[in-house]
Amino acid sequence: MTENRPIPAVRLVTAHTGASSSANELGMRPMQARAYAHRGEQYLLIKSPPASGKSRALMFVALDKLENQGLKQAIIVVPERSIGSSFADEPLSRHGFWADWTVKPHWNLCNTPGADDVKVAKSKVKAVGEFLASDGADGNRVLVCTHATFRFAVDELGIAAFDDRLIAVDEFHHVSANPENRLGAQLGQLIARDKVHLVAMTGSYFRGDAVAVLSPEDEAKFTTVTYTYYEQLNGYEHLKTLDIAYSFYTGRYIDKINDLLDPAVKTIVHIPSVNSRESTKDKHREVEEIMDHLGSWKGTDPVTGFHLIETAAGRTIKVADLVDDDPAKRDRVAAALKSPEARSNRDHVDIIIALGMAKEGFDWIWCEHALTVGYRSSLTEIIQIIGRATRDAPGKTVARFTNLIAEPAAADDVVAEAVNDTLKAIAASLLMEQVLAPRFEFTPKDVGAKPGFDYGPDGYQEGRTNVGFNEERGQFHFELKGLVAPSSPEAKRICAEDINEVITSFIQDKQAIERGLFDPEVVPEELTQVRMGKIVRDRYPELSEADQEAIRQHAVAALNITQQAAKIVTETATEDGSGELKANTSFVDGVRKFMNVRELDIDLIDRINPFEAAYAILAKAMNEGTLRQVQAAISARKTVLTEDEARAYAVRAVQWKRERGRAPEATSQDPWERQLAEGVAAFARFRAKAKAAEAAGDAAGG
After folding, report:
1. Is 0.85 topped by the overall pTM?
2. pLDDT tens across 279-291, in order?
């Protein structure tokens, strides 16, 4: 069924070196060893993709804290009970470590049926209290519970009850700096009291609602360990290619999904929520129709509860239905999916159909295709679903994620919602392209070569644009003319560790996406300087203007270089005639080609529209009439400049005047200069209006 595959929006070709699976003398994989090296930190944030071994990394760190750092107990907090199994007993000494990980059965509160239900979670508070009261005696050292149980326990027992313990929060992106996020508020109190150690773990340190995970002052206390998607996938032994694509449909999604679902490919299908517009409002019928497409139903397996389907090719496949509302049936299927055979036997199950399950923390290494209907609630959820397909497994060379989305149509009475879904899909593809790229380190021109980086056959040369690549770490070093370097320790940390989070905030800015994609009059600098500048100022208000500008430049450079390199790689593959990306160095070569085109400075990067490549993918996936409909819907709600936007343009205009010795002119042929002049004029009007109102108020008061 390859002829029905949608065009990939993102493609990563890996080197499949096997490094991700190799272990050191203590039995630690690369990411785990990196985290363990920081085991002495009181506040540790581990940012690492799915399947990189975060659970076991926590075991190594927690055991050291319990044995060597004076902590009494460790509490592992997970978002749902199915993830609790990731922290079951592990004989670490068998692989070289000095201790084993053990959790007494009655302290793994996730094993109680319904443990992620609110009522049951409240009943577990008593167990948490008993665990804390034991003070770690008699081997009562580790407890595993859900986020909900932990929240209720903190409310009832108080912050002080957790003193001298390790609190490890898995899937940390569930936390939010919003005061209404109870878990986030409680962690803020724990940090303020400063009597616990915290380990936070996540594969996506950002949220779909654009709210920060932690406040800047709390985040600054954490030492960050980052292991990138690039390092993880490039170090796999078997998986060679990851494709991320978007497909659009009209009518019923069931009719289109049949073209994308191949019974010979191990697939997780996530059908839409019954409350979404993609749903037919009968989820059970949707599952039945999907199974009808796969073949003829031959009953269910009495042990696993899997449906047995005979395909047109005469093969019987097994389909796991996680949509069924019957608790007994669903629990039996879920248990079968968590069994050791599910991991060891490729033929244990073939297709999984789910709605709210089988996302974060779900470990089915054989999954080759994650097929998701409807844009999900957040970019974080997209990252998590993609992670279901990116496990390394024997015989698995290609992994795919396909998001099937309803395309806007002129007759659609909810076209605005359809447009919004389309924009979110584009944002997700932009984000994943950045997440899958090697890490970037930028420095001003002629600072010198960095040890361990390859600068090409001619080596490092002063006076030219230099690009170095460290293959082992998957990291680029760029020199950019005119780059502002961060000065404070916090700004340096952000540029080194959190640029992807800044980029995420940018591409979740709906106005930026709309302007970048569908406004023919948009000036790239409006996006890269004004919109990105506002995001950085809002995110890091405590930093100096110089450091804010440094972060803005680093984020824009990373996003645009990724886009331009991917564009070159795609064009090269097309020119080659094969349409395939053969060399594992394709992205690296794409970056170097882009850098060699001309002298690269930050002004040049600011003049590139970061959404151009996304528009090209969209243009291939949707017809001209649909694109016009999207553009018309967006144009209909175009807004004038706000006061904040006008102020941002005025600030840029001052800088522009300083560099050129004259003010920007509204009659200039340069669209960016005209935009600056318009911004200055608009800001002057806002100022005049404010002064007039102030004068009127004074007169009335006198």
Report:
1. no
2. 888 999 999 999 9
Residue in the block written with tokens 């009209």: 250
626 φ, ψ (degrees, to nearest 5): -65, -40
Please calculate the CA angle 210-213-215 and round it to the nearest 5 degrees: 110
- First CA to last CA distance, the chain: 80
- What ranges make up the beta strands (E) of 213-264? 223-226, 241-249
Kindly state the tokens that stand for 331. Answer: 């629990």
Could you give the maximum distance between any two Cα atoms of the chain, in Å? Answer: 92
Strands 398-406 and 369-373: parallel
- Reading the block at residue 141, the tokens are 């050292």
Phi, psi (degrees; rounded to nearest 5) at 457 = -60, -30
φ and ψ at residue 165, rounded to 5 degrees: -120, 160
Q: Alpha-carbon distance 191 to 218, whole Å?
A: 7
Contacts 24+ apart (CB under 8 A), 151-157: 151/182, 151/183, 151/186, 152/121, 152/122, 152/124, 152/125, 153/124, 153/125, 153/128, 153/129, 154/186, 155/182, 155/186, 156/125, 156/129, 157/125, 157/128, 157/129, 157/132
Two tokens, residue 138:
């008699």
Q: What is the pLDDT of the chain when averaged over all its residues?
A: 84
**Tally of CA atoms within 13 A in the half-sphere of 81 that contains its CB:** 19
Paired with 267 in beta bridges are 351, 369
Count the neighbouring beta carbons within 10 Å of the beta carbon of residue 199.
29
pLDDT tens figures, 48-80: 888 788 999 999 999 999 999 999 999 999 988
